[in-house]
Write a structure and sequence with these properties.
The chain is built from eleven helices and eight strands. With 249 residues, it is of the alpha/beta class. The protein has two domains: 3-114 and 222-245, Rossmann fold (3-Layer(aba) Sandwich), CATH 3.40.50; 116-219, 3-Layer(aba) Sandwich (Rossmann fold), CATH 3.40.50.12500. It has a four-stranded parallel sheet with strand order 2-1-3-4, with helices on both faces. Strands 6-5-7-8 form a four-stranded parallel sheet, sandwiched between helices. Helix 1 crosses helix 11 (220-231) and helix 3 (60-69) packs across helix 5. It is globular. The two termini are 24 Å apart. It is an enzyme of class 5 (isomerase).
C-alpha cells in the first residue's frame, strides 16, 4: 500500500482546505489503493485584503522549506487570491520559486498553486467561458476575473459575495451556492467555478449544481486535488468531486 504525504501551505485563518482536500482524498481511498497523510504550514493572514495577501505571500518560502523537511510528496499553495492579486501569471513565478526552495533543501517537490490548478482544470475540461463565484470584495473579485481572462479564458457572469473576514468566508453555508448560481446567467458558459476561493466551502454543493445546470462545476479545492493527483501520476477518479474528478481528465 502506497502512502502519499500531502503538504499544504495555508493562510493562518484558513480552515477549509485542510477539510475539503482530505475529504476528497479520503473519498478516493474508497475506490483506489493509495492512502494519504496531510501536513500543513501556515502564513499569517486574517483579513482578505490586497495588502495582507502580499505580506502573507512573503511567508510562503518559509512554509515550503518547513514542509520539505517532512519530505512531502506534493505541495499545494492553498490561497488562490493571494497568487492572483500579485499580478498576471504569478502562479508560475510562485511555483518555480517554491520548487527551488525544496530543491535547495535536497527535497525537490512538485508544487501546485490553487490559482494555477484552477486555470489548468478549466482548460482540461475544454471550457472556453466560465461563470465565477467568489466570497471576496468587488475589487479583489475583479482582479480574479481579470487574471482568469488574461489566461485566455472568458468570464461571463460573476458574483462577489463581499465577505472580507476570512473566518466568515469559511462559515458561509455551501447550501447557499445552488441559489446563488440559479440567480446567475449560466446558459452561455461551458463550466461554472462555484468557489474561486480555497476558504469558501463548496464540496457538498458541487454535484447538486452539476445536476441543476447540466454543466461541469469546479472549485479551487477540486482543481487543487485534481492537479495534485496529476502531478503524482495517480488516477483522478474521486467520488463526489464532480466532472473534473470523474477520472476522465
Amino acid at each position: 500500500m502506497k502512502v502519499v504525504r500531502v503538504g499544504q501551505i495555508v493562510p493562518s485563518s484558513n480552515i477549509t482546505m485542510e477539510t475539503e482536500i482530505p475529504a476528497l482524498l479520503k473519498a478516493r481511498e474508497l475506490v483506489a489503493p493509495e492512502r494519504f497523510t496531510f501536513h500543513s504550514s501556515r502564513m499569517r493572514m486574517k483579513h482578505v485584503t490586497k495588502e495582507e495577501l502580499a505580506r502573507m505571500d512573503g511567508d510562503s518560502d518559509r512554509c515550503a522549506l518547513e514542509l520539505s523537511d517532512a519530505r512531502v510528496d506534493v505541495m499545494g499553495y492553498a490561497c488562490l487570491v493571494a497568487i492572483m492579486s500579485m499580478g498576471h501569471g504569478y502562479h508560475r513565478v510562485s511555483a518555480e520559486r517554491l520548487r527551488n526552495v525544496t530543491e535547495n533543501n535536497d527535497a525537490a517537490t512538485p508544487i501546485i498553486t490553487s490559482a494555477g490548478a484552477l486555470i489548468d482544470g478549466i482548460r482540461a475540461l475544454g471550457a472556453k467561458r466560465v461563470a465565477v463565484v467568489t466570497p471576496y470584495m468587488k475589487p479583489l473579485t475583479e482582479l480574479v476575473v481579470d487574471y482568469i481572462r488574461h489566461e485566455g479564458i472568458e468570464v461571463g457572469d460573476y458574483r462577489a459575495l463581499e465577505i472580507s473576514d476570512n473566518l466568515a468566508v469559511a462559515a458561509h453555508d455551501p447550501m447557499n451556492l445552488p441559489g446563488i448560481i440559479a440567480s446567475m446567467r449560466t446558459d452561455d458558459v461551458d463550466a461554472i467555478v462555484i468557489s474561486a476561493c480555497v476558504q469558501m466551502p463548496s464540496l457538498n454543493a458541487i454535484t447538486m449544481v452539476e445536476a441543476q445546470t447540466r454543466k461541469p462545476v469546479i472549485s479551487a479545492a477540486v482543481a487543487t486535488t485534481w492537479a495534485m493527483l496529476t502531478a503524482l501520476d495517480l488516477p483522478t477518479r474521486v467520488p463526489g468531486g464532480g466532472t473534473l474528478l470523474s477520472g476522465a481528465y
